[in-house]
């Protein structure tokens, strides 16, 4: 784990996707420390006195690229008291504190990888996907779902990578379609399924499921369902990596 | 305004005044003053930082530790720097880390061999023994006092898994050879860089070649924080393991006063513990408590800013002393750097030649009687010390030079506290001895 640093950051931009889902761009007072795709940061809203204790904070995957150390990006959905405070208090120009980097949810280039992402859980993978190139030696599969199409907030990045990296395959999942009919979207809808992220939908695509490593990030119910399904299919527990926070 | 802020400003300003008064430089008096072999070199900045940290009264690792570790890792161009309470602890943490089950088939196991030297400080070798590994001793060169490169290859055996050696008194060992051997045979390479902060090998700082490297910040060393040391690595797994070994062996990596840094304090399963057992009290290694305080790191931060000037003064003092001693080369073997290296000298090592007409102790007694401090090259031959006589070990060839070092070698200081007046005095004392004067 690289040396953890505490940084004061100014909120530079907030993207509101509706339904209490946001992306926040932070500008640190000094360049952020080196971090790896999949690592996370702590964000505190209260003023931090470096001579004292770190205030209450919550963890968020670093969604931005490690190559860009003068900006940090996180995405969140309002789920509890702290994220409700974030929604209320974080405005452009406001100062917050972060400490980073933490975590070992890092994807090495050692096996085929299968990524399951639900909602803002995709942020555990965006940094990795951002840096994904055709030079990655293994296949990468992504099953990425959200309640509605507008909440597939990193769809553009994912599609861009899908076009640029031949060994990257993606399936989108939308739980609710207005009117209940098939999803609109023309040619790209071939990549889009209605329903929750599932193992079943991607399993047939995998060339060697027994030798892949599975990375899961999303709501607890999704994590539980996917983990159990993978277990039933004979995937060893050590091949299932779950990014689960309290 | 918070009155404590104004008070703090006043206190710190008075600390600066105090430091200027109390520790004002005064002229060297050769009739009374010692010429130390090493020592702390500081000014008001160190006292300011120390008191500043103490006024936080955080006590355990906090902002100064974060700052030091960040700046130190940056200096070396590495990801991870982990402060510990001494260089010896750094060696213990580094080597113990290599016994972690988290390293899979690269984990060192009891009976595995580690190549090292016996002309060493004891706590370079002690962690090998403490971890039930077997040290394999190779002899060293006279002059640079580092492992004879050819012997490293000869030391390889079926259970050899690591190399742990010091850059003796600032002189880098043959890193081409050691790193090449490590790569060829899949060995761990640990650089004990405790005596060599600022030394370079092929223009690159030592401490950046090994999987792990260690540093000491004891007052005799290149920079100080009183008691202190550091483990550095660019390997994320080793960093995590080293932190665990340092911090009681626990799996959790929260620093003092932090909770739930991992974000899953009650959500994990370890060993046969109940699901969700508090991560703060989960232990993945047999560990120690070897942490530093924020006050120590505060001193270190001030010292780190002076490293460049300290290094330059060490090199300049070394060169002046070499010029002083050059006329006596027929009787004294003077030190040399290893090929490709640029040492930040810890001291100036001298081996009394066999045909000198006097022995090492005769010379050091004379120097000490004239208030010039001397030190032996640490243990001389570690295997001849009571604690190490019976340890399981292997010797490659013989340790003839190591024994010579034990009998005939010592060093004198080149540290930044030595100034022109000291050097001139040292020149006069050496001249008197070489002219035949002896302690009666």
Layout of strands and helices, then pairs:
The complex is a heterodimer of chains A (246) and B (440).
Chain A: E1 5-18, E2 21-28, E3 40-44, E4 57-61, E5 72-77, H1 81-89, E6 95-102, E7 113-118, H2 123-130, E8 140-146, H3 155-164, E9 168-174, E10 192-194, H4 200-203, E11 213-217, H5 220-232, E12 240-242
Parallel strand pairs in A: 7-8, 7-11, 8-9, 9-10, 11-12
Antiparallel strand pairs in A: 1-2, 1-6, 2-5, 3-4, 3-6
Chain B: H1 3-22, H2 44-56, H3 63-76, E1 80-84, H4 87-97, E2 113-117, H5 122-130, E3 134-138, H6 149-154, E4 160-166, H7 175-185, E5 188-192, E6 200-201, E7 204-205, E8 212-216, E9 229-233, H8 236-246, H9 294-304, H10 307-325, E10 332-333, E11 341-342, E12 347-352, H11 360-369, E13 375-376, E14 394-395, H12 400-408, E15 409-413, H13 420-434
Parallel strand pairs in B: 2-3, 2-4, 3-14, 4-5, 5-8
Antiparallel strand pairs in B: 1-9, 6-7, 6-11, 8-9, 10-12, 12-15, 13-15
Question: Could you walk me through the main structural features you see in this protein, from its secondary elements to its overall organization?
Answer:
The complex is a heterodimer of chains A (246) and B (440). Chain A is built from 5 helices and 12 strands. Chain A has helices spanning 81-89, 123-130, 155-164, 200-203, 220-232, and strands at residues 5-18, 21-28, 40-44, 57-61, 72-77, 95-102, 113-118, 140-146, 168-174, 192-194, 213-217, 240-242. Chain B has helices spanning 3-22, 44-56, 63-76, 87-97, 122-130, 149-154, 175-185, 236-246, 294-304, 307-325, 360-369, 400-408, 420-434, and strands at residues 80-84, 113-117, 134-138, 160-166, 188-192, 200-201, 204-205, 212-216, 229-233, 332-333, 341-342, 347-352, 375-376, 394-395, 409-413. In chain B, the strands form 3 sheets. Chain B has an 8-stranded mixed beta sheet, sandwiched between helices. Chain B has a 4-stranded antiparallel beta sheet with strand order 10-12-15-13. A 3-stranded antiparallel beta sheet of chain B has the order 7-6-11, with no helix packed on it. In chain B, β2, α5 and β3 form a beta-alpha-beta unit. Chain B has 440 residues and is α/β, with parallel strands linked by helices. Classes of the chains: A alpha/beta (246), B alpha/beta (440).
